[in-house]
Amino acid sequence: MTISQGGSRCRAQSARYSLVKSFHVKVVRNRRIQSGRLTQFCNFDLNSVAIMKHTIIIVLLLFTGLTSTVRSESPRQAFVKAWKGQSVVIKTTLYSLVYNERGMLGNTRSGRREGLLVVTSSRGGHLQFDGRQGRDTVVAKEPAQLVKAVFAAYEANALEPRPYRRLEPLAVEQFVPGAELVVRDVYIERDEVKLEFEQADGSKDTTTSLRVKWPLPLSPSFSERRHLEDLLRRFVEIRQP
């Protein structure tokens, strides 16, 4: 092989090497470009997912809040809302016991009042003064009988270290039909509903009350509401505006 032939072969190999190198550079550049596009595409997808995730969370929170608002008022709360603060007109006489009570430390609270009327679905109504200071509940049909029974129940006990009358009944106050009162508070207990009343002139002291005693524990759904209100409306009626 001549020198000229050797030179031609070297130039040919050099040219091929240049083509290969150029091609390799282009491939690497293309890969870098594609990699950059892929990274941008992935970043775009991740950002979209994050935005969608936050949007879904916000929607769920709003939906949960609306659902909680709708469900927040239970049947019992609806009953309380329907009666509390209402002006009512008395249809049947209500009764309260006026009494003085002396506490364990000797302090006396004078002129206290407690409603007496309790209504049942089967036995009609009766007067009831709940027991306190270790004494039994007093039940009677007539006001005079109740005063006499309370007086006897709270006599001083000679066996106590400091015997004294713990409670002194003074009178039974009557609230006659046609009088107007305001529902001050509404209580729903295990098996009864209680309305406490105050004077319509703005006095905040409880004047009397009306209780409906149910023969069974009240259901969680408060399905007894209609029957309870029927009993309540025998004695008081919400004043229409």
Mean pLDDT: 80
Task: List the total number of helices.
Answer: 4
Indicate the proportion of strand residues. 25-35%
- Tell me how many strands there are: 11
C-alpha-based Rg, rounded: 43 Å
**How far apart, in Å, are the first and last alpha carbons?**
125 Å
Structural class: alpha+beta
**Overall domain count:** 2
- Please summarize the sheet with the most strands: 8 strands, mixed
What order do the strands of the largest sheet run in, or round the barrel if closed?
6-5-4-10-9-8-1-11
Which overall shape is indicated by the principal axes computed on the Cα atoms? extended
Helix content: 40-55%
Low-confidence stretches: 2-8, 14-35, 66-70
Query: What is the chain-wise order of helices and strands?
Result: HHEEEEEEHEEEEHE
SSE topology sketch:
Layout: H1 3-71, H2 75-83, E1 87-90, E2 94-102, E3 108-115, E4 117-120, E5 124-129, E6 138-140, H3 143-153, E7 167-175, E8 180-188, E9 192-199, E10 206-213, H4 225-232, E11 236-238
Parallel strand pairs: 4-10
Antiparallel strand pairs: 1-8, 1-11, 2-3, 2-7, 4-5, 5-6, 8-9, 9-10
Short account of what is shown:
The chain has four helices and eleven strands; from the N terminus they run ααββββββαββββαβ. It has 241 residues and is of the alpha+beta class.
